Structure formats: structure tokens, C-alpha cells
Amino acid sequence: MKKVFVTGTTGLLGTNVLIKLLNDGYSVIALVRKKSSDMGTENENLTWVEGDLFTDISEHLKGVDCVIHIAAETRQNLLSYHDYRKINHEAVVHMFSQAVAADAKRFIFVSSANTLGYGSIQEPGNEKSPQKYPFTCSLYAKSKLEAEHFLLKNNKTTEVVIVNPSFMIGAYDQKPSSGRIIYWAWKKKVVFYPKGGKNFVHAEDAAIGIVNAIEKGKKGEKYLLAGENLKYKDFFKKINRITAQNPFMIPIPNTGLIVLGKIGDVLRALHIKTDLSSENMKALRIDNFYSNLKSVEELGIRYQSIDKAVEDAVAYFKIKERKL
What we know:
The chain contains 10 helices and 13 strands. The longest helix is centred in the first third of the chain and has 21 residues, at 81-101. The protein has one domain: 3-Layer(aba) Sandwich (Rossmann fold), CATH 3.40.50.720. The chain is globular and about 55 Å long. It is 39% helix and 18% strand. The N and C termini lie far apart (39 Å). The chain is an alpha/beta fold. It holds the Pfam family Epimerase. This is NAD-dependent epimerase/dehydratase family protein. InterPro entries: Epimerase_deHydtase (IPR001509), NAD(P)-bd_dom_sf (IPR036291), NAD(P)-dependent_oxidoreduct (IPR051783). Residues 4-225 form the NAD-dependent epimerase/dehydratase domain.
């Protein structure tokens, strides 16, 4: 039985990865800030370890074959690059250094699709596409890309494999995180949508890609974990159909998003945290599309429809609401 050490197991992607690892028979050591009673069913092949991303975990890495590093700072309202770099780069260096010292065979780093260049529906971005604006100005994406560069530069005794998930939707989105986009349209009489689009992927498929990368991923390679390329309007229509609602759909003018971005820039200059910025509003106006061909061919992923991802997410949210 192979032993795997994983960070970030309480989030949307991490929970799906943990479930996949245990179902596939791996022995898992999961790093969490603090153990709690609602962390799920105990499993004889699962060990919880308390600590943060800068904790000395060397004793827990003995005999570990692979480290999967999922934990990241993903909030969009932080104001300085240091706020992202500490977690998304410095912590990665710390975790990787410990993995190397423990002679772990493989280090899988969960990055972001936005470190790679997006494309159009006819020519979607791939693993060789250089990063493009507005993500070249995204503090989050920049910090992830810096970590990628460090890992690939030091890809020697411990093999590095990088996975780049697109926008994930699915069950176990506890906060919710990316699943907030479903609430943008769900139970609304009027839905405002931007004119751009993005790639959506079922979180379960992203988890399968990460676990498959333990055996199938090639040293020093990047893999886009990407599902369907959809306009926001079409994505919201899926939510409407799946939840049996018929809201009035209104497009947001690009000029309106530009103005909102400028307002956000001013607020940020005044040290007020906000998700608004020119970069974030630009991201809503473009077609942020990617190809999954490499991960299909080399990692053996069979991607599910985004309808299924939305159905799973909505079902999970309904269960959570009933428990409240």
C-alpha cells in the first residue's frame, strides 16, 4: 500500500482527493490546522496531523511515497503580493524541502489554470500557452506561477508534477468557495451575467486527475485539469434548468464591469479589501478557455459533464441547508 501525505484536505478539491485516495486503497496522512468532530468518518488508512504549512512534519513523512500539496491562499480580496506569496510560494518551498529531505519519490503541486494562457473556443489554451493578461497581474496567479518555477528548477531527486485545475464545481464545497457562483443564479428572479466565459471542471474529475498523477504523471510536466468551456450565460442556464427555475437573464455591459474595476482599484489604493479590481473585472469579460487533451491522454481522465457537477453541488448545498 502506498503512503501519501496531503495538505488542504478540508476544502472542495481536498475533500474529493481524500475520498479518491482512500477509495483507491492509499494510506493517507492529512495535514489540518485543527482536528474537529465534523471531519467525516474515521478510516483505518487515514491519519490526521495537526499543524500549519510551516510546521516541521519530517516525522510524518517517513516512508511517504508522494506529497500532494493542495492548500493555498485563494481569496481575491487581499491587497499585497506578500499576502499570497507567503502561502502560495514560501509554504510550497518549505513543504517541498521537507519532502526532498524525506526522500519522497514524488511531489504533486496543485496550481491554477490561470498560470497558463487561455484561448478561444476554437483554439483553447494548453500547457504550452504562456500566461496572459489579466492573470499576469493577478497576485494569486503570479504567486502560483512563482511556485511552479521554483519546483521545476529543483525537480531533481523528488519528482515534480504540476496540475492546473480550472474552475471547480461539485460536492463538498463547505464554505462555499467556487460554488458561490451557483448562488449567483440559484433562487434568483433576475440573473445578471457577464459576457465572457470560462472553463468549468467537476471537482471529482480534478481529484481523479491528481490521484492518477501519482502513477501516470510525467516528471516535470504540467497537466490542465479542465472540463467544459462555457459562456457564463450558458452556465447559468444549466443552473436554471437543473434547479427548475426561470429567472430573467440580463447581460452586464462591459462598460459597467470596467467602471466596477476602477472603483475597486480606488478602494484597494485606500487599503480597503474588495474582490473588485480591473484585473478581476477583465477576467469576466474574456473567454477564459482551456484544453484538457493532455490530461485525457496521459492521466486517463474521462471528464463528466458540467451538468453533473452542478447537480452534485446543488444536492450538497441542499443537504447543508437542511442541517442548518
